[in-house]
Amino acid sequence: IDFFKGIDKTIYNMLVTLNRVGLGYIKLGQSTPTISGGEAQRIKLAKELGKRQVKSSLYILDEPTTGLSISDTEKLIHLIHELCDNGNTIIITEHDPVVLSNCDYIIEMGPGGGSDGGYVIAKGTPAELKMDEKSIIGRYLL
């Protein structure tokens, strides 16, 4: 990041944004097959954050915290809030109770995975799910 600060503003800003989404460890020129699905989503998120913000966009994230440390998850949550505060809508498929606790509304599917799932077992705010006896994730929400 420091190297590009005075050389190329576009590259510098993108590297700062990649760092903000918890990808400061990615190497320039790293080949695509070595990047996980969660990392690829965060790269796309960084690209969006680097653009001039357009309100009323819809973002769909599938397990964006996969492989993230607790501190990087907190960074991601902050950036998701930033996108929401700018008038955007975010739909997240996620299992992390910290992320789910920061959602406005949760639709909990289950009761299991794969062929054992596919039914809405609980829905509402995190506070409502904490009180819903049918919710599996509710007891883990903050």
Protein model, in words:
- There is one protein chain.
- This protein is α+β, with helices and mostly antiparallel strands.
- Helix content is about 40%, strand content about 15%.
- The protein has six helices and four strands.
- The chain has helices spanning about 1-5, 10-20, 35-50, 70-85, 95-100, 125-130, and strands at about 60, 90-95, 105-110, 120-125.
- The strands form two sheets. The chain has a two-stranded parallel sheet. A two-stranded antiparallel sheet has the order 3-4.
- It is elongated.
- The relative contact order is 0.11.
Describe the structure concisely.
The protein is built from 6 helices and 4 strands. With 142 residues, it is an alpha+beta fold. The mean pLDDT is 88.
- What is the mean predicted local confidence, pLDDT? 88
Major β-sheet annotation: 2 strands, parallel
Q: In one word, what is the shape?
A: elongated
Q: Strands across the major sheet, in which order?
A: 1-2
Question: Which features would summarize this protein structure in a list?
Answer:
two-stranded antiparallel ribbon; 40% helix; 142 residues; 4 strands
List the helices and strands and how they pair.
Blueprint: H1 2-5, H2 9-20, H3 37-50, E1 58-62, H4 70-85, E2 89-93, H5 97-101, E3 106-110, E4 119-124, H6 126-131
Parallel strand pairs: 1-2
Antiparallel strand pairs: 3-4
Helix pairs in contact: 2-3
